[in-house]
Amino acid sequence: MIVEVLILLISIVNSLIWINYFKTIDIYEKEKWITLLSAFGLGISLIGLIWVYDVYLSEATIDFINTQLVKITGTEKKEMIFSSEYYSIEPQTIEIEVSKKSPLLDLFKYVFEEFVLRIILVFIVFHFFRLLFKKQLNEPLDYIISGVLIGVGFFNAEFFLIARNIKSQAIFTLDTYFIYESVIFLSSSALIAYAFVLYKYKTKNILLFPLYFIFSIVLYSLYPVVVFLNDFIFLPFWPLFQAIYVLFCISVFSTIINNSLNNSPFFDKKKILNSKRIRNQLLYMFGTLFFLQLLLNAEIENLKLSVHYLVIIIQSTGFVAFVSVVVLSYYKLIQGKWYPIRLEIPIYKPGKKNIAIKGFSRNESDFIPFYDTEFKMLDVSQNSDFLSNQKFRILQKLYFKGDELGFLAESVNDADNEKIILYPKLDGVITMENKYPIVGIYYFDESNDLSKHILKIKHFQFHGWKKMIPIEKEALVFN
């Protein structure tokens, strides 16, 4: 009884992580709870469709595939391509038993029934949901939220049903299920919704739907295929592959969300995400998941063993979860900007001997008072009056290596409109009087190409540190 309660709590917490996350980042035109919970509930209902397939359609489907492959290959009917007599499967996190005759063909059946079928169901249900809530889905992020929450409901309902019958030796791998496989499935679900976003808000190309459908299937299926192969061939790079693959999925996921925020019809550059709040919420909730797994391990095995394993997973799964949290708490918000989905992970080298997670190291909220407002640049040390007599305004945001935020600003005093690069100070004293941000001043000329994929601040000439002070508008006095 205690085990089932703990598993139910893990499912609930894992669901709340994503429901709360999307409610928090939906900053332009917030969706109502009824829409979010409806998408989540429809996802849970997919368990019923899986049951119908397993009971009534599974054998017929495999027989149909056998028949078609026999026609194509010319194989005799008695040499069945698939046969349930040789095939049985436990939940993917526990154990996979495969045919000794043809493990690769069993792999094909496994991938189809456990992964391709789920993507098909998410696609169908999302399309139905999109038609049902047509008026409510009025910005790109609404599509992504709906698609992902359908996946959240489906994933966690299935997790609860699977984990109740889990074998004791597999209980220690649950973290890889609700961190790794959860992120992969939700990224795949987001790709399904993203095709509709691109079609409506970017380009009316019908080929987007099959293209992203296939992309979604490949993204979701590749990971378990390697899991399957690892059972037959020892893969020394397996733990590294796990981490890199999940981080790649997070990169895809965050790009989709970023583009959806950038292209909202309700975009407002003075509305930004509270990155610190988002990061803390995700850390607390992922920490709760690991704590619940500790209790579950202690209940099934013993406390000493569970504590030992918790230390191990904090260094592996915990690291991946932490990187994911940082990435999902910060976005490069530029109205109308579409970032391409790239084959990359959200980690970079700021120097020769260290690595860092991509994302702005400060809070963008420090700079909101300077958007659409003229400001002065005063010397921090008061030793120079360079630029102190000029007024500036921000022209656009710039993102440098590691997604660090900067600005292109111009002078409003002279006819030449002198332009400079403002790069926020990232360590030590970063503000004056707790309200005036300190920025580095870098020279800019028209030969500088700001359209590069990766801008490096070292390519610009540094002048010195200044503090930004907004110019107060004169109050109107009525007689």
What's the β-strand tally? 11
Given helix and strand content, the structural type is: alpha+beta
Mean pLDDT: 81
Helix content: 40-55%
Q: pLDDT below 50 for ≥5 consecutive residues: which ranges? A: 77-101, 474-479
User: What characteristic shape results from the CA principal axes?
Assistant: globular
Rg? 26 Å
Main beta sheet strand tally, sense and closure: 6 strands, antiparallel, barrel
Number of domains: 2
Cα(first) to Cα(last) distance is 77 Å
Strand content: 5-15%
How large is the count of helical segments? 10
What are the secondary-structure elements, in order, as H or E? Answer: HHEEHHHHHHHHEEEEEEEEE
* Oligomer state of the chains in this structure: single chain
Q: Largest beta sheet: what is the strand line-up?
A: 5-6-7-8-10-11
